[in-house]
Amino acid sequence: MRVKAAITVNLPPDEVQRRWQELRGDDEIFGYLGDADPSGIRFEPAPGERGTEIYVDLEESTFGGAVGEKIQRVAGTTPDQQADDDLRRFKQVLETGEVVRSDGSPNGAGPRQHRAQRPAQPLDEPVGAIS
Amino acid sequence: MRATTWQGKNKVEVTDVPDPQILNRRDAIVQITSTAICGSDLHLYGGFMPSMMEGDVLGHEFMGTVTDVGPDVGNLKVGDRVVVPFPIACGSCSQCQAGLFSVCENSNPNAGMFDQIAGQSLSGVFGYSHLTGGFAGGQAEAARVPFADVGPIKIDGDLTDEQVLFLSDILPTGYMGAELTDPQPGDVIAVWGAGPVGLFAAMAARFLGAHRVIVIDRFEYRLRMAREKVGCETVNYEGLEDEGLVDTLRYMTGGRGPDKVIDAVGMEGHDHHGLIHAMERFKQAQKMETDRGPALRQAIMACRPGGVVSVIGAYGGLMDKVPMGAVLNKSLTIKAGQCHVHRYLEPLLRNIESGDFDPTFVITHTLPLDEAPNGYEAMKHKEDDCVKCVLKP
Q1: Cβ of B124 under 8 Å from any chain A Cβ?
Q2: How many C-beta atoms lie closer than 10 Å to residue B98's C-beta?
Q3: ipTM of the complex
Q4: Which residues on A lie below 8 Å from B27 (Cβ)?
Q5: Cα torsion at B30, B31, B33, B38 (round to 10°)?
Q6: CA atoms within 13 Å, Cβ hemisphere of B17
Q7: Got the DSSP string for B319-346?
Q8: Tens-digit pLDDT profile for residues B238-278
Q9: Is the Cα dihedral B56, B62, B68, B73 positive or negative?
């Protein structure tokens, strides 16, 4: 299958590309694109001084073919859904400093969180990620 | 701590939940001194908004005292008194930098869910379903406030909670509804809905220079408030006999129709025509339509050619039978948005300090937090002439 995803980050292309190289091994941000072939990822200046457009365009063979793809889609783990979430978290880290967490999605944006939401009430266990 | 939690359709309970904690470096924890039930909370209460979970803490209008700050919050300190805007916004994406805080690109961790119903996402919102991020709300003793270096406004001086609490949502929302119409001298502006947002929109329309403001509702006690507290003309559409609302408004405006119209009703509007209302209730129940649309339809039909339709009432998804022919053929402009609260905080606080606006007039009920379920019932069923209910944790 063809995996396509795109996002715009409000920083100049050289900085975005440098941070991508720096952070691609960070599994808090990247669940899928960290290992992607660099030829499938393109960085372009966004018009109107809006920073950098990141384009993902990858060819991916799905285990189980069309049926496997359907199963992944229901589970929220198709490569394109994962690519979307990776891009969102990368943008959050560059623009806001970290992955944004909520009570319902304490691990941040991600397809699995969408299907396994916690109630929107404070967590009962300490998270301890903040120093 | 104690918190108002959603427990299913038409059921909220004040229960014990864990205390909030800092999850991100730019968070603050606020001990809440005053919070309010919003008309849009009734959409959650009534089960009209998808993606609610049992146990979700409700509430997006709140203020209080800072009790803890994350390491990257430089502008607030423990003890500061703050009002918190209902949209959560990062301040650094290009939408925030353009002042469009309610479409912040970073603050909703569940933006991927919202994309599927709207193409792109709303910002994160406190206590307003998992589509808007799954953030615990503020009808509670305390709340975690993300991006606390961007959102909350500090309140110094001796203004009461009641004077400033509505900076969190309904005062800026009403104000933006009026501002979107760009009121000009000579304008006649009609406002659908005499709830708190509609009343504030009417107040702002007058303040911004509209010549006449006409408020439309079916509850006489609310229309009385529009006349006596805001100085507007009113129409009770249930009191109209043969001629409909659109004709009535046309007659009231020399045959032109109102120059600008504001929809401050949203997805649970009532249609005077019983059959259409029954059909839309049925379609909502069958999930064939999420939004009932009588107010917006009437507003579009009533607006004079070349006029502006401002939509600030809360809609969630899809509405049937929008008269696009009228929009096109009358050259109407539609403007809409969840309020970009952050950009109105400073100027509206100054309006309150100077006495231009006294938003306290909408408060009809003040209850202890533990009585939140009674507050929801009073607001939903308009019991005891309820307009706005404030809760005290």
Answers
A1: yes
A2: 12
A3: 0.91
A4: 130
A5: 50
A6: 29
A7: BS---HHHHHHTT-EEEE-S--GGGGHH
A8: 988 777 999 999 999 999 999 999 999 988 788 766 777 77
A9: positive
The predicted structure's pLDDT at residue B290: 72
Question: Contacts for A24-30 with beta carbons within 8 Å, 24 or more apart?
Answer: A28/A89, A28/A99, A28/A108, A29/A86, A29/A89, A29/A90, A29/A93, A29/A99, A30/A86, A30/A89, A30/A90
* Cβ-based neighbours of B223, under 8 Å, separated by 6 or more: B194, B215, B217, B234, B235, B236
Distance of CA B137 to CAs A103, A110, B85, B87, B174, Å?
Answer: 10, 22, 12, 11, 21
Which amino acid is present at B160?
T
From the list A91, A122, A129, the residue facing B106 with the nearest CB is A91
CA distances from A22 to A27, A76, A83, B242, B283 (A): 12, 27, 18, 71, 52
State both tokens at B37. 């039930």
Interatomic CA distance for residues B312 and B280, integer angstroms: 20
Give the residue-averaged pLDDT of B185-205. Answer: 97
Given a cut of 80, whether residue B201 has pLDDT beyond it is: yes
Mean pLDDT taken over chain B: 95
Residue B83 CB: number of other CB atoms within 10 A? 26
Q: Residue B366 corresponds to which tokens in the numbers above?
A: 């003040």
Please enumerate residues of A whose Cβ is less than 8 A from a Cβ of B: 8, 10, 50-51, 81, 84-85, 88, 91-92, 95-98, 100-106, 108-109, 111, 113-114, 117-124, 126-127, 129-131
Give the best residue of A8, A121, A127 to mutate against chain B (max B CB count within 10 A).
Answer: A121
Which pLDDT belongs to residue A131? 42
pLDDT of residue A127: 65
The pLDDT assigned to B236 comes to 96
B280 touches chain A (CB under 8 A): no
Q: A46-89: per-residue pLDDT in tens?
A: 999 999 999 999 987 766 677 777 777 766 678 888 899 999 99
Flag whether pLDDT at B80 surpasses 90.
yes
Q: What is the distance in angstroms between the Cα of B39 and the nearest Cα belonging to chain A?
A: 20
Give the torsion through C-alpha atoms of B320, B321, B325, B330, to 10 deg.
-90
Q: Shortest CB distance from A119 goes to which of B19, B56, B146?
A: B56
Residue B229 amino acid letter: K
Residues of A in contact with B93 (CB under 8 A): 10, 91, 95-96
